[in-house]
Specification:
- The protein has 715 residues and is α/β, with parallel strands linked by helices.
- It is 46% helix and 10% strand.
- The N and C termini lie far apart (81 Å).
- The strands form four sheets. A six-stranded parallel sheet has the order 3-2-6-7-1-8, with helices on both faces. A six-stranded parallel sheet has the order 11-16-15-12-14-13, sandwiched between helices. Strands 4-5 form a two-stranded parallel sheet.
- The chain contains 28 helices and 16 strands.
Length: 715
C-alpha cells in the first residue's frame, strides 16, 4: 500500500506544487539524484557540489510523491553536526520525521531497544573517553605511557575494533601499523586485551562496542534482524568513502540482501584510513550492484575558479604511486567552478614558525578590516601542536578565535549557565522580541554588544554568548511564520536539541583547526599553514599510500575555501634556527614558476628499502663484535671514546628532562640515553635522517623531531 503524505502530519499543500518546489533550483545532475528513487544509487560528489542538497531533496521528493514512508527511511552519516544539518534541511523541506543519525547513534538506539530482549538485564554503561581505562590497563601491565602515548593507543584500539579485530587477531593484521605509543605489536596486543578486561570489570562498553554488539545481535537473532528490516526499507549513506568494515557489516545486516540503498561519497576526500575507513566499498559499489545508477556531481558552487583550479591541479599532479589502476582517486572527479572569478591564491615563505604566525595574523586582521567576518576565516594545520603559535599571534593582534576540537561548545560553563537562565526566563517571557529577550538575559552573564578588547578567556566567553545571540536573531527570521512567531520557549527547546546533537552555533571568531577536523566545513578565507616537508606530508607517511592520503588531506583543506586562499610555510622552526626546511612537494606545480614533483613513490621519506644480509654489528672504533642492544644502537663499545660533542649530548639530556617533567613520565620514555648518544653521534641533518636511527619511531619523530634538530643545529 502506498504511503499517503496527507495522513503523515506533513503540511497539507498541493502535491504538484510541493514536487516542483523540491526540484526547483537543482542542476541537471542533482535533479537526477533527487528523482532516482528506487534501486541502488551511487552518487560521486566532489567538494562543494551540493551533495547534501541533492540527497535531502531526494528524500523529500520521495516522501511527497508517496514512494517513501518517512518513518521507514534511515539516513546515516559520520558526525553529529552533519546529521543535525541534514535534519534541519529535511525539516525545512517538510519531512522532519525522517531519521538522520550517525552510525553510532542509530546503532545505540537499536541496542537500547533490543538489549533487554536479546541479552537481558541492564545495558552496560557507555564509556565516553578511553584514556582513563587505557591508563589503568597500562598500569596493570606495568607499561610506561604518557598522555600522548595513551592518545595514540586509543586510536590504535579504535582502528582494531572497527576493523573487527580481537586482541588475538590484531597481531596478524597490524604488521605495518608502526609502533603506537612507542610499544611493539605484542605489547599493544596485551594492552588491548587488558583494556577489554578493565571494561568488563567495570561493566562498561565503548562506542565501537555499540557497533560490534549490535552487529552480533543482528547476526545471531533472526527476530531482531527481521524487526529492523521491517522498520527500515530505504537507506541513505553520506560520506560513504569513510565507511569502516564494521559499519559496512552493520549496513549489510540492515539491508538483509535488499538493494534500496543510496550512497554518496568522494574517494578524493578519503582522509581517515588511520581510523579504519576505506573507500573500497564506494569503489566497488557498481561491481556489487551491477544495476546501480551512478551519478557524478562536479559543478562546484562553493569556490572561485582560482581555488577550484588549484584543487584540480593538486590531484592532477599525482602519479599512480603503485596503487591499482582502478582506484578512483587515480582518476579524480574534476571540479567545474560555477562562481565568478576571485583573487589569486597567495604563497608565503617565512623565516620561522613565529614569523609565519605573525604574518598570517596580519593578513587576517586586514581581511577583517575590509569586511570579512572573523567567523568566515580559518587557519588550518596538519597537527594540533601547531595551533599554539597562531593562538598567541591572534591574541597579540586582538583577533578573537575559536579552537575547533577543544572544549565542546555546549560543555562550556557560560553556555550551560545561559541555557539555565534562558529556560527560567521562558517561564515568564514577556511580549518582547526574541532577540532583545535573549540579550537582556545574557547581559546578566556579561554579554555586551561590543567585543572586549582583550583576548584569552574573557574573549572566548564573550564569543560563546555572542554566538547564542546571533543564533536567536537567525532563528526568529527563519522559523517564524504568519501563523506562529518563534518564541523564547521555542529557542530554549532548539538549544536543548542542539546540545543533544552537539550542533553548535557559529562562534564569531577565527577558526583554528586541524585539516582532519575541517572536513565538511567551509569558510570565505582559508589559511593553510606549516606546509613544509615533514609536516605536509607528515614525516611518518612512509609509503606511497600514506603519502597519497596526505595529498588528499591538503585537497580537503584547499576545497574548504570559498574565495581567499593562502599557503604558507617557514624555513626554520625557531627564530635564528637552521633554515633547513623545504616547501611541501605538493606545492610543486601550484606555486608560480614551479613544476609538478616526482611520483610520490619516488619521494617517500624514510621509506623502507630491501635489506641485505649483514654480519654481526661491530664497534666502529675498535672493530670488536657488539653484544648488547645499547652497544649496537650507538655503534661502539662502552669503553671506546664517543664520537660526539659532549656539550650537545648534555643539551639533549637537559631538553629530555624538561619534556619528561612536563609530561610527568620517566626520562627514558622520551628517549633512552643510548638513543640520545646515537642522535648526538649521527648528528642527523633532517627528519629523514633522524627517522633512520634506532629508537626514533614515527610517534617520537612527530612529537620531538623538530626540537631535536634545533638542538643539533644550534649546539
Amino acid at each position: 500500500m502506498s504511503f499517503d503524505p496527507l495522513q503523515s502530519g506533513l503540511p497539507v499543500m498541493d502535491e504538484r506544487t510541493a514536487e516542483e518546489r523540491i526540484l526547483a533550483g537543482l542542476d541537471d545532475e542533482q535533479r537526477t539524484v533527487a528523482t532516482t528513487l528506487n534501486g541502488p544509487l551511487c552518487v560521486l560528489a566532489g567538494a562543494g557540489t551540493g551533495k547534501t542538497r541533492a540527497i535531502t531533496h531526494r528524500i523529500a521528493y520521495g516522501v511527497h510523491t508517496g514512494v517513501y514512508n518517512p518513518n521507514r527511511l534511515l539516513a546515516v552519516t559520520f558526525t553529529a553536526r552533519a546529521a543535525a544539518e541534514m535534519r534541519t534541511r529535511l525539516r525545512d523541506l517538510g519531512v522532519g520525521t525522517v531519521q538522520a543519525r550517525t552510525f553510532h547513534a542509530a546503532a545505540l538506539r537499536q541496542l537500547q531497544y533490543f538489549w533487554p530482549h536479546a541479552v537481558g538485564g541492564q545495558l552496560p554503561g557507555l564509556l565516553d573517553y578511553k584514556a582513563q581505562i587505557i591508563a589503568e590497563a597500562a598500569r596493570r601491565l606495568r607499561l610506561p605511557t604518557d598522555r600522548a602515548a595513551i592518545r595514540d593507543l586509543a586510536a590504535e584500539i579504535e582502528w582494531a575494533k572497527v576493523s573487527m579485530l580481537t586482541p588475538e587477531t590484531y597481531l596478524l593484521k597490524a604488521e605495518d601499523r608502526g609502533e603506537p605509543g612507542g610499544l611493539d605489536k605484542v605489547a599493544v596486543g596485551r594492552l588491548f586485551q587488558a583494556y577489554e578486561d578493565v571494561k568488563a570489570d567495570r561493566n562498561l562498553i565503548d562506542f565501537e562496542d555499540v557497533l560490534l554488539i549490535t552487529v552480533g545481535i543482528l547476526q545471531e537473532d533472526p527476530r531482531v534482524a527481521a524487526t529492523v528490516r521491517d522498520q527500515y526499507r530505504h537507506f541513505v549513506v553520506d560520506e560513504y568513502q569513510d565507511v569502516s568494515p564494521l559499519q559496512q557489516r552493520m549496513l549489510d545486516l540492515w539491508l538483509g540482501g535488499r538493494d534500496e540503498l543510496c550512497v554518496v561519497g568522494d574517494a578524493s576526500q578519503t582522509i581517515y584510513s588511520f581510523t579504519g575507513a576505506t573507500p573500497r566499498h564506494l569503489l566497488d559499489f557498481p561491481k556489487r550492484f551491477p544495476d546501480a545508477n551512478v551519478v557524478k556531481l562536479v559543478r562546484d558552487y562553493r569556490s572561485t575558479p582560482q581555488v577550484v583550479g588549484l584543487a584540480n591541479s593538486l590531484l592532477g599532479n599525482r602519479r599512480s604511486g603503485g596503487l591499482s589502476a582502478d582506484a578512483l582517486w587515480s582518476k579524480p572527479l574534476e571540479l567545474v567552478a560555477q562562481r565568478p572569478g576571485g583573487p589569486a591564491a597567495e604563497f608565503l615563505e617565512c623565516s620561522d614558525d613565529e614569523a609565519e604566525a605573525a604574518a598570517v595574523a596580519t593578513r587576517i586582521k586586514a581581511l577583517i578590516a575590509n569586511g570579512t567576518k572573523a567567523s568566515e576565516i580559518a587557519v588550518l594545520f596538519r597537527t594540533n601542536g601547531q595551533s599554539e603559535a597562531y593562538e598567541q599571534a591572534l591574541t597579540s593582534a586582538n583577533v578573537g578565535y575559536q579552537l575547533r576540537g577543544g572544549e565542546r561548545f555546549f560543555a562550556r560553563k557560560e553556555v550551560r549557565d545561559s541555557m539555565l537562565q534562558l529556560r527560567a526566563a521562558s517561564r515568564a517571557a514577556e511580549d518582547e522580541p526574541l532577540g532583545q529577550l535573549v540579550r537582556d538575559v545574557l547581559n546578566n552573564l556579561g554579554y555586551q554588544e561590543e567585543a572586549p578588547k582583550t583576548g584569552g578567556a574573557v574573549r572566548e566567553r564573550w564569543e560563546s554568548l555572542a554566538a547564542i545571540v546571533a543564533l536567536a536573531d537567525e532563528l526568529v527570521v527563519s522559523r517564524s511564520t504568519p501563523e506562529h512567531t518563534f518564541t523564547l520557549i521555542d529557542f530554549v527547546a532548539e538549544l536543548q536539541d542542539r546540545a543533544t546533537a552537539q550542533h553548535a552555533p557559529t562562534v564569531q571568531g577565527v577558526t583554528l583547526a586541524s585539516l582532519h577536523s575541517a572536513k565538511g566545513l567551509e569558510w570565505d578565507a582559508v589559511f593553510l599553514v606549516g606546509l613544509s616537508e615533514g609536516l605536509m606530508p607528515i614525516s611518518f607517511a612512509d609509503t606511497p599510500e600514506t603519502v597519497d592520503e596526505e595529498r588528499r588531506l591538503l585537497y580537503v583543506g584547499i576545497t574548504r575555501a570559498r574565495e581567499f586562499l593562502n599557503f604558507s610555510w617557514s624555513t626554520a622552526r625557531t627564530p635564528g634556527g637552521r633554515a633547513n626546511r623545504r616547501p611541501s612537494r605538493f606545492l610543486d606545480g601550484l606555486r608560480p614558476n614551479t613544476t609538478a614533483s616526482a611520483p610520490a613513490s619516488d619521494r617517500v621519506p624514510g621509506a623502507r628499502k630491501s635489506r641485505k644480509a649483514v654480519g654481526p654489528s661491530v664497534c666502529r672504533v675498535c672493530g670488536k663484535i657488539l653484544n648488547t642492544g645499547a652497544e649496537r644502537k650507538v655503534g661502539r663499545c662502552p669503553d671506546c671514546p664517543p664520537g660526539y660533542d659532549e656539550a650537545v649530548f648534555e643539551q639533549l639530556r637537559e631538553w629530555r628532562l624538561g619534556e619528561s617533567t612536563s609530561a610527568s613520565v620517566p626520562a627514558f620514555v622520551v628517549f633512552t640515553d643510548a638513543t640520545l648518544m646515537a642522535i648526538a653521534e649521527a648528528s642527523p641533518q633532517d627528519l629523514d635522517e633522524l627517522a633512520a636511527l634506532p629508537g626514533v619511531g614515527p610517534s617520537k619523530l612527530e612529537r620531538y623531531g623538530e626540537a631535536v634538530l634545533d638542538i643539533l643545529a644550534n649546539g
